[in-house]
Each structure stands twice: as structure tokens, then as C-alpha cells.
Amino acid sequence: MKKIWILCFLITSMSVLYADEKADLNSIVKYINDFNIECSCYSLRPTSKDQLLFPVNYYIIDGLFKKVLKGENRDEYIQKFGNKRKWLVSKNQGVGEFLYLFHAIQEVDDSWQYSPKHKVQNMQDTHNFAFKNYCEVEGKIQNEFARIKKLKITFFESQYQVINSGMNYHVYDEFRKTKSFEVSFPNQAEIVYPMPAYKPVGSTENVPGTIIVLIIVLQLNVLEVYPGEEGKPLCAEDFYLGYKARGEYTEVLKQIDKI
């Protein structure tokens, strides 16, 4: 039971809301350091939401959800955490709200030291970032909700050390803002792939005796929406940020069980 409690605390710990960007980023640093997580694979961090929100990563074959279902409280976890993939936002229909995702970037050689030949030139080549700019129920698109029209994507970078013989992560510097992009979407219910052509700033330095890994935060800021029916919130779902080596987005979605 203690192990399950720790997993549930990990799941919900990022749903605490903070008032400003610096506090948001500091909470991500704390999350990485406390739980030794290199990606937002267990929880997403919105500034406003109508219900719990989890990424696609949480529900796939090696995701945390399938692991906790092996415990004795399977039915309880299905009820609490099953199919919580919709970002529903009533507040201003999402306009002005933020959603944070983060992921590691490997720019290291076999000895886990920085190597210029492994420098990532474009995150479009190494990572998939996608979501459904709509919501559906039992496979049917729900057109009454607002959709995202324009999105600002801001990148932040830091690095973490792998310490204690590979058992722990430690982010040793504050996240720094590096670049922003604005992306517009048509008023259509479709999967969108808004990863910009972003070249990480990264680092050319090594700390002797340590393993250094670059970590990137994507801050999504909803600038405009296509309004839905009166009183209906913004709704988008199935947010995913992961290595391209895991497969294309539509193939990864097939790993999610119907709950």
C-alpha cells in the first residue's frame, strides 16, 4: 500500500497551482528532483482546469496507469484516474491559460558526456509533440466545445545531473527562457503537430565525474480560441511529448486501453 500511495502522490503533486511563471517552473524543478522524472509522462501541469489531466504517456504500455492497475485497488484507480485525458477549461474558455510539458534531450555519447556530434539541431527530428484540437466521447467528436485558434509555445532549458549511481536526478540550475513561437490552427477537429523547428541552446560543458542531461520545458499559452456553444469550455485532449523512437503519435495512441 505504501508504494501505491507514493505513486498516487506523484500523480497528483503537479496539480498544485502557482501564481506566476517563475513559481510554475520552480514547481517543475521540485517535481523532477523529488521523483527523479525526466518527462511530464505522469502528469500535466495546467494553470487552470475543470478536471484531472494526464498525458498520453501516462496510459501507454509502459505508463504508470497500467502499473497501478496491477494493485489491489484496480477499480478505484480506474474510477479516479481512467480516461482523464481532456483539458477542459471553463475560465475564459482557456484564453490566457497555460499548460506545461517537459522532456529530456539526449546530447551525450555512450559515456553520458556531452558530445558535439550528438547535438540536437531540430527538436522536430527527435521528439513528437501532438494533441487533438477537439474532444470526443466514445469516438464521436463533440463540436460544442471551444477549440484552440492560436497558441504561443515558449521554450525553457535547464540541465540535470544523474547522481547517486544513477538513482536520482538533480536540476542544478534555474530554467531559462530561450525562444517563443506562435502557431495558428484551422477551425477543424483534427490532430495537430505544433512542434516548432527549435534548436536547443544546450551546453558545451561537462562537470567531471557527473552525467549531465538537457531538459526542455514547453509552455503552451492559449492566445485565441474558436468559441463553442454558449457556456461550453475549451476542450482539447491526448497531449503527448515523447521521443520519436517510441513511434508516431497515432501509433502510440493505439496503446491506450478503453476504460
What's the short story on this structure?
Helix content is 17%, strand content 32%. It has 259 residues and is an alpha+beta fold. The relative contact order is 0.22.
Written description of the protein model:
The chain has 259 residues and is an alpha+beta fold. The chain is built from 5 helices and 12 strands. Strands 1, 3, 7, 8, 9 and 11 form a 6-stranded antiparallel sheet that branches. Strands 2-12-4-10 form a 4-stranded antiparallel sheet, with no helix packed on it. The model is unreliable at 1-18 (pLDDT under 50).
Quote the beta fraction. Answer: 25-35%
CA-CA gap between termini? 23 Å
Protein structure class: alpha+beta
Low-pLDDT stretches are: 1-18
Name the features.
259 residues, alpha+beta, 6-stranded antiparallel sheet
Secondary structure: elements and pairs:
Blueprint: H1 2-12, H2 21-35, E1 45-46, H3 64-68, H4 74-81, E2 86-89, E3 98-105, E4 127-132, E5 136-137, E6 140-141, E7 147-163, E8 168-171, E9 176-184, E10 191-192, E11 211-226, E12 234-243, H5 249-253
Antiparallel strand pairs: 1-3, 2-12, 3-11, 4-10, 4-12, 5-6, 7-8, 7-9, 7-11
